[in-house]
């Protein structure tokens, strides 16, 4: 995955590129991936669930699986839960509560870590993504997240990679490009900003950790930690 870092400075292009035939299957809940006829290789991305009670953000992993088996068990973590693609790669969820630790990706070609939640305010950690580690909740530490921004209960949540607003619209099972930037890439999933202001109407967006609201889907830590997500490309 060394070529990812080589082109990270050009955000107008997706950093991972189109894989295989360009087909994508999103798993918003646990299930089974059945290998289509003629497919031998797949690329799997896992986002762990965000920690509840303003916890840490979910971890992230991405892995190319060659000679994939006919069926693969897909696990999608609920709040704080672990997401995985069979035994190939795993992303753990963030732990709950103030100072909650972010989840960790493992087994992949590239792995990153979710943000830590704040110990001083109710700010959740942001989810990790292909761009890097999740943002910490305000006052949680010194780690500057390249992925979903952390949240705060008394000020706007920190921005994600592309600013305070999410760059895509992502609800359970549905993905589409946002109006701010017409990205045509799933690489922007997990790059939104955190929520803030101490109420549920300012929840995190697109993987951002929230203030007192819900964490941004997927994997943002918050007063309600967001579920994880598994994406399979083939």
Beta-strand content bin: 15-25%
Report the span from N to C terminus.
Answer: 17 Å
Q: Strand-and-helix sequence, N→C?
A: HEEEEEEEEEEEE
Helical percentage? under 10%
Structural class: mainly beta
Biggest sheet character? 5 strands, antiparallel
- The gross shape turns out to be elongated
Count the strands? Answer: 12
Total helices: the number is 1
Detail the poorly predicted runs: 1-13, 164-182
Rg, Cα atoms, Å: 16 Å
Trace the largest sheet across and list its strands: 1-12-3-4-9
User: Can you give the mean pLDDT?
Assistant: 81
Description:
This protein has one helix spanning 2-6; strands spanning 24-27, 31-34, 42-47, 60-65, 71-75, 83-85, 89-91, 105-106, 110-112, 168-171, 174-177, 229-233. It is an all-beta fold. The longest helix is centred in the N-terminal third of the chain and has 5 residues, at 2-6. It has 1 helix and 12 strands.
Describe how the helices and strands are arranged:
Layout: H1 2-6, E1 24-27, E2 31-34, E3 42-47, E4 60-65, E5 71-75, E6 83-85, E7 89-91, E8 105-106, E9 110-112, E10 168-171, E11 174-177, E12 229-233
Antiparallel strand pairs: 1-12, 2-5, 3-4, 3-12, 4-9, 5-6, 6-7, 7-8, 10-11
Briefly say what this structure is.
The chain has 234 residues and is an all-beta fold. It has one helix at residues 2-6, and strands spanning 24-27, 31-34, 42-47, 60-65, 71-75, 83-85, 89-91, 105-106, 110-112, 168-171, 174-177, 229-233.
